[in-house]
Design goal:
Length: about 90
Amino acid sequence: VAIAVGVDEAGMIEIGTMLVLTGLIIAVAVGLWRLQNWARIAVIVLQSFSLILSIILMLNGAFGIPSLIGLAIGGYTIYWFATNRGYFIKPQAG
């Protein structure tokens, strides 16, 4: 039973995709809050995809100051998470 009125099948797929992505983002955020190494790796991977997409968009004509700022922030985010691995490694008991 579809509650949403006027939403076709493609719209429902889009809504479902956004809900899944929202859940993924929340899971990564909770993992980062708890200093989980898997969340650090997830940020590096997802941010790398974002940088690749930004570069493709820039090559297709979406070039401007906001694009450059986005690349700089994304690049620094990858750098920070890659070089600060020690925050996400649990100390050994003993």
